[in-house]
């Protein structure tokens, strides 16, 4: 009769052997946490330790024996020891023969050793069946029970029976095992918890490049040019004024780059006339980090909002408006109300506010729990339709901000236009192409291609 | 011996037949994703395809055969084909006899066909047992592993053994099956992924009606009236000034409507003297969309905060305050400091900030992951007590904003009061009724009724 | 053959007895919700009720019988009745003998009765096996399916076979059972849903103490002192000006207190020379509520941002700047532009914005769904490195805000420095100690101690 705690008893309830015994080598943080969790889920635990007497921190109900005695008690032995101490296991080769050894170890660096820890363990104890598991779960997550998205436990191993046993234990702990194949997959599994935001690398570097370029561009226009021509010391503008040009342009560019790969993919499919050819690798990779590009864009937009809202608090702005008013009072000058200026000013501010509001909505629906609570039709509605509306509003905000001075030659300094003009290039181009793509003639062809029609198909 | 991967092996580990074979008809996006996921969870997969040779995109380890050969290999056949192509299955009726067919299809529109896809399949292949499942899971969710809240897989079918087999597969993939009954439930299940925010319809339409009405009300008061009487062109106020009256009033009204059904329900229970009579349908439906009403209110409040914080940046405001200062300087007029104006101004701003802060807290606790991390006593504390505090602060904010001009007749234009007075009607009425309801005499009776006491009970 | 719905059928599918029958005593809200959920997961349900005829609200497919008849139909009986009515169960002692009784009850107050409800039930029906379960799940969560983080169901009982049966039911409903031991654990389990944010108590009281102290400190300096010496009525400053000093100082202090226990722990480990001695209890408890301290700090920082952004809207600020400008115009006084003031003003504002931005990032990664989507290396990077960067930026923001007046004696009123000077004490001290701790000599020793080296070790 099976021994897992998954089985219901027959009506007569006379099963005596209910609990499977699992052995854990090692009494460190992770070994103790895993043992306590398995006790709570109905297993019997036997610890193997160098010092069977010193066991004050172990959970109640677990035995502590020497390694060889503990190994005899169970089929499955979880090796909760650092790789550097694996060599002592060679002394236990006869005891471990035919057992299942579960390698849960992690290294400190990617590629710290030529072979993965699991393969090294398999070399040391060739008679045992080594299965890699549990290395993506932290001891803290096991203790606190916060196991929601780290519910996936990657499992790999050469022997499929051994893998099944370990996958059953994983399920009994309330986690979801993911079979990654043979033991050669262990290298990839061991790399997983050492990664630091891999999908964010490209968007982050791209943002840094954009920011640095735009910063120097603005410094040339706003600090160096006035110094050369008017001997004005505008260096203080590098604290708020110049970042408040760099951040919004970066945000708008990144937001346009979120939707650009979709447009490029549509053009590719129209050009090739089929949906069955793979996209180029760079386009695939770009499509995979669209969410990160969008969230970075939201971060820059949020900074832009904060930098804009503090404008009236700044000493420079208060001094300038005070000076203007004093001059106007002393000269008794008239300052008639310009309705067009009021419309322009209120319009671009209102467009910016509405664009930022929708942008925050997009960000909120990117949160894992919210994006999981909506079905995929709702998700596509928000991310695609509301996303394009956000892009349109933010582009309109920038265009109206330019106002009447938009393309006037008097605004060029050393033939360089204002920075926001640069920021408008990608979004405007993209919106024009997208507008062409939603024309009925083009859209019909694209829909047919996406439903399987091929221009050059032979079937 | 059972063949699922849920079983632990006996100590001797000599079970050879471990993996259940499942057949998938169709090699499109979803068929491939589902096949790969099932391979990772320990199943053997056999694909049935029109072109058994063209199989370059299929996951490793899966066989590809013709439909009839693939169908012979397994008990369970997942039909990953569009409904429009179901008719070829009639040729395979003898092979499919007695098998379990899993219908995973979705349509493009609600009620696109008179009967559900699952019932149509059951008509085509009457000898098979049709089970509806998996149609709420997207291929992307299967691949990326982001399966948290789409963990629920709705299952329905006429044969309970076939349903159990499919529910076991669902559990082995780490999902939770929900038995919805017989195959007649398939129509409802197929409607589920086509819905677009069904609970948000009523709150959204209500907000739109409120906004449009208040917009025209404010236009009459703030644009048309000054034009008729003073020939002033105030049209630019439609960009920011008027939205900044429409949004806060809509927010306050929607927030009051979140708590009003609870008050109405309490009055109904007091009036009827029992808790065992059902509420009217409109009250039930209103209670179900309270969360959506509250989140919409938070959205409008956030817009109001942004529109308010940009006030000093607007050209109109800068021109007006500059003009005021210049006039005062030229006329050498005294402008003594009014402590009561300072108190009023600072008070209503502070009340607004505190109300908005609590409102944001309410919104954060509405996020799925946060609301699941608190127990229901904590959730009720935040949503009920802090919610009423938010309503009180926001109502006080509006009352103090009115200040001394609140009900003065000089503020009526064409006998229409200022818009914020309209917005105060529902919240103030509600708070008064709630205050009456928490009086000890009334509250005691209500608590007894809610614990089961009936005024006219015969027992 | 087992009867749970977890089993896959053999290939021949001739198992007839598929569904386990469970009995539920009581037809209140929770009994009905639990019964419906269990029906959906494949169980047969039999209700026991006082009034077997009045069953209009029960789910379809469930039988309703009298208590004694219902009890005979099943092994497992869920007691969905309030503790106050348990005494009638003594009449059914013979029928209930040997059955599994599942106690799901909750009380209204912690320690409302001397013994737990489960132990009381065990005293009333000594022949049955009492298991405590399900009391942390609400009826609403069962109905709506929102079962993500309340997935954990605490289970305890004296008989391990009975516990296993109940744990199987829990798993079949898609929840995760957590075995808490024998029935004596029931008291703790029954306390769990009555708690109201237990980890937030200490941080909340600490914040309240800080706020009240700082409020009175600022009132003395900013309201009483000017009244005593200049007869100025500054009471209106209590609405916005004084809170805008109290909140940021509280935020900065709480943020420093988030990282201080880590620094103290490091000093302790260096002093003792080992990592194997337990920390004092107050340090352990402090470490456990670091997340709550940080989130409270973020809340106060958010309030500070809002109070700062409304500065230009306040009547007092507008009156003061208008007065200044008018005086300057009338006296025709020069007001030269001070570049150093512009740098100082822009710098501290920019530092504050960047610090707040990172603070919001920290808060977002504290959301349960986001913190579960990152691995522990990424989580530590954000919370530790970005956290210290946030602390440095906010401390620099406060230091630059002080500017040239920072420690000048002329800013002392009654020998009391400005409030922000008080707020700088803890952060600056902490950053200095942390700077010492990351010096290579000290850091190497600490790393060795944390990897297991002991200064006084005998091995």
UniProtKB/TrEMBL annotation, chains A, B, C:
Record domain Ferric oxidoreductase: where: 249-382
The membrane-spanning stretches of this chain are 204-229, 249-272, 293-317, 348-374, 386-402, 414-438
Alphabetic keyword roster: Copper, Endosome, FAD, Flavoprotein, Heme, Ion transport, Iron, Iron transport, Membrane, Metal-binding, Oxidoreductase, Transmembrane, Transmembrane helix, Transport
Q: Which GO terms describe its biological process?
A: copper ion import; iron ion transport
Q: Where is it mainly found?
A: membrane
Instruction: Please report the record's description of how this protein sits within the membrane.
Output: Multi-pass membrane protein
Q: Pfam families, from UniProt? A: F420_oxidored (PF03807), Ferric_reduct (PF01794)
- State one molecular function term (GO): cupric reductase (NADH) activity
Catalysis performed (reactions): 2 Cu(+) + NADP(+) + H(+) = 2 Cu(2+) + NADPH; 2 Fe(2+) + NADP(+) + H(+) = 2 Fe(3+) + NADPH
Question: Where does the Pyrroline-5-carboxylate reductase catalytic N-terminal domain start and stop, copy by copy?
Answer: 22-107
The cofactors named for this UniProt entry are: heme b; FAD
Any GO CC annotation of this UniProt entry: plasma membrane
The protein's location, in the record's own words, is:
Endosome membrane
**Can the keyword Cell division be found in this entry's annotation?**
no
* The family this protein is said to belong to: Belongs to the STEAP family.
UniProt-listed PANTHER family? DUDULIN-RELATED, METALLOREDUCTASE STEAP4
Q: What is this protein called?
A: STEAP4 metalloreductase
Species of the source: Colobus angolensis palliatus
């Amino acid at each position: 009769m099976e021994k897992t705690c998954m089985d219901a008893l027959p009506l007569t309830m006379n099963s005596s052997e209910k609990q499977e015994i699992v052995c854990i080598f090692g009494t460190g943080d992770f070994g103790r946490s895993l043992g306590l969790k398995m006790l709570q889920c109905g297993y019997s635990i036997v610890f193997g330790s160098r010092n069977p007497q010193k066991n004050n921190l172990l959970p109640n109900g677990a035995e502590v024996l020497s390694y060889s005695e503990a190994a005899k008690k169970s089929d499955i032995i979880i090796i909760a020891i650092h790789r550097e101490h694996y060599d002592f296991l060679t002394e236990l080769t006869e005891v471990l023969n035919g057992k299942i050894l579960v390698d849960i170890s992690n290294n400190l660096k990617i590629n710290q050793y030529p072979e993965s820890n699991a393969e090294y363990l398999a070399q040391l104890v060739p008679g045992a069946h080594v299965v890699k598991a549990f290395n993506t779960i932290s001891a803290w997550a096991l203790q606190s029970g916060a196991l929601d998205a780290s519910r996936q436990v990657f499992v790999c191993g050469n022997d499929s029976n051994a893998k099944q046993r370990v996958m059953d234990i994983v399920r009994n702990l309330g986690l979801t095992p993911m079979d990654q194949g043979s033991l050669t997959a262990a290298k990839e599994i061991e790399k997983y918890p050492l990664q630091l935001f891999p999908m964010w690398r490209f968007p982050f570097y791209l943002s840094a490049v954009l920011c640095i370029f735009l910063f120097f561009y603005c410094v040339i226009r706003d600090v160096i040019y006035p110094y050369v021509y008017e001997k004005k010391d505008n260096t203080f503008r590098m604290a708020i004024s110049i970042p408040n040009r760099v951040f919004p342009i970066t945000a708008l560019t990144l937001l346009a780059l979120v939707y650009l790969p979709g447009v490029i993919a549509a053009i590719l499919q129209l050009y090739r006339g089929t949906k069955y050819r793979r996209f180029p690798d760079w386009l695939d990779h770009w499509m995979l980090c669209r969410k990160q590009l969008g969230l970075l864009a939201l971060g820059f937009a949020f900074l832009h909002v904060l930098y804009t809202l503090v404008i009236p608090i700044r000493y420079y702005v208060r001094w300038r408006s005070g000076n203007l008013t004093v001059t106007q009072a002393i000269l008794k000058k008239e300052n008639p109300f310009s309705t067009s200026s009021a419309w322009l000013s209120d319009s671009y501010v209102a467009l910016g506010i509405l664009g930022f509001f929708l942008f925050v909505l997009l960000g909120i629906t990117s949160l894992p729990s919210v994006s999981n609570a909506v079905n995929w039709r709702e998700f596509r509605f928000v991310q695609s339709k509301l996303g394009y509306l956000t892009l349109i509003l933010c582009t309109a905000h920038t265009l109206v901000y330019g106002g009447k001075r938009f393309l006037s030659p008097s605004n060029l300094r050393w033939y360089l236009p204002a920075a926001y003009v640069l920021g408008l290039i990608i979004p405007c181009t993209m919106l024009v192409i997208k507008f062409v793509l939603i024309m009925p003639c083009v859209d019909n062809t694209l829909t047919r291609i996406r439903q399987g029609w091929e221009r050059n198909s032979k079937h």
